[in-house]
From TrEMBL:
Family from the record: Belongs to the tetrahydrofolate dehydrogenase/cyclohydrolase family.
Claim: Amino-acid biosynthesis is one of the keywords in the record: yes
Reactions accelerated catalytically: (6R)-5,10-methylene-5,6,7,8-tetrahydrofolate + NADP(+) = (6R)-5,10-methenyltetrahydrofolate + NADPH; (6R)-5,10-methenyltetrahydrofolate + H2O = (6R)-10-formyltetrahydrofolate + H(+)
Protein name (record): Bifunctional protein FolD
HAMAP family registered for this protein in UniProt: THF_DHG_CYH
Pathway given in the UniProt record: One-carbon metabolism; tetrahydrofolate interconversion
GO cellular component: cytosol
All copies of domain Tetrahydrofolate dehydrogenase/cyclohydrolase catalytic, residue ranges: 5-119
GO MF term list: methenyltetrahydrofolate cyclohydrolase activity; methylenetetrahydrofolate dehydrogenase (NADP+) activity
GO biological process, one term: tetrahydrofolate interconversion
Length: 282
């Protein structure tokens, strides 16, 4: 039976280290600060941003939550972002996406100064990641990379198969692992004979948002399985992998919940501290 990789435990360890780093920065009069902006009152988005704020406070990091009405205009939001870009006390800016339909997500992403883009979505930062440069990496993909490394899983030369090609998860996690010298295959909704690909994977990353898409018969004996999916089935949180059967063939597997999820916010905290250090030349 597979070793279960608990992102939750790792996230707690990393946040403890970050708490110490933040207090060390405070002694140098550097106060890392994250500002999260949310439009409207969508309960899922609200619970995400509250989680981000709580996590910031827990490591002693300054954080502001700016709640705007859903009818806020694109101009008003762009003006606010510009104000935050100019504010020297702010190091990380995050606008909770998606924004309402009358505002362009892409315009908002591109308005945030790349040095404060702690989500790692700005095309300048995406481009840096593509070309193997250091920058802010998107939080979920980065969290997956850190989990694999901390679990001592060799990436070089491994065949990584990713199900999913979104800009949020699939594409960037593939790029980060390619940068680590893995051989990367992306599958997606138009891929033919999915199982013929997943069966080849030394490391299988599933980010499709489809409950039970993957089970034991899709997995090569001894593979590492990372389940990114978050689905609600009969009121219960579940991933994209049938955990019970998969753990009998995999060597390592992440659960849902307590797997990849807690790593995402952790990497957001990491990126904000990094932004503060860069802005203050530390
Ligand atoms: P998305 O809907 O943007 O992308 C899903 C991808 O999966 C697409 O590229 C699609 O082609 C592919 N896909 C869908 N059905 C497929 C199928 N049957 N066979 C092969 N490929 C298929 O979603 P996303 O934003 O990339 O998120 C993916 C999942 O990860 C969701 O469940 C989401 O909730 C979850 N997620 C979790 C975290 C976290 O922190 N744990 C963060 C982001 C997203």
């Amino acid at each position: 039976s597979a070793e279960v990789i608990y992102g939750k435990q790792l996230a707690e360890d990393l946040r403890q280290e970050m708490k110490e780093e933040v207090s060390a920065l405070h002694t140098k009069d550097i106060r890392p600060k994250l500002v999260v902006v949310i439009l409207g009152e969508d309960p899922a988005s609200m619970s995400y941003v509250k989680g981000k704020q709580r996590a910031s406070e827990k490591i002693g990091m300054d954080s502001d939550l700016i709640e705007l009405p859903v009818e806020t205009s694109e101009r008003e939001l762009l003006d606010l972002i510009e104000k935050l870009n100019q504010d020297p006390t702010v190091h990380g800016i995050l606008v909770q996406l998606p924004v309402p339909d009358h505002i362009s997500d892409q315009k908002i992403i591109e308005a945030i100064h790349p040095e404060k883009d702690v989500d790692g979505f700005h095309p300048a930062n995406v481009g840096k990641m593509m070309t193997g440069q250091d920058t802010f990496f998107p939080c979920t993909p980065y969290g997956i990379l850190v989990m694999l490394k901390r679990a001592d899983i060799t990436l070089e030369g491994k065949h990584v198969v990713i199900i999913g090609r979104s800009n949020l998860v699939g594409k960037p996690v593939g790029q980060l692992l390619l940068n680590e010298n893995a051989t990367v295959t992306h599958c997606h909704s138009r891929t033919k004979n999915l199982q013929s690909h997943t069966k080849q994977a030394d490391i299988l990353i599933v980010a499709a948002g489809k409950p039970s898409l993957i089970s034991a018969e899709d997995i090569k004996e001894g593979a590492v399985v990372i389940d990114v999916g978050v689905n609600r089935v009969d009121g219960k949180l579940t991933g994209d992998v049938d955990f019970e059967s998969a753990k009998e063939v995999a060597s390592h597997i992440t659960p849902v919940p307590k797997g990849v999820g807690p790593m995402t916010i952790t990497m957001l905290l990491h990126n904000t501290i990094k932004a503060a250090k860069r802005i203050h030349n530390q």
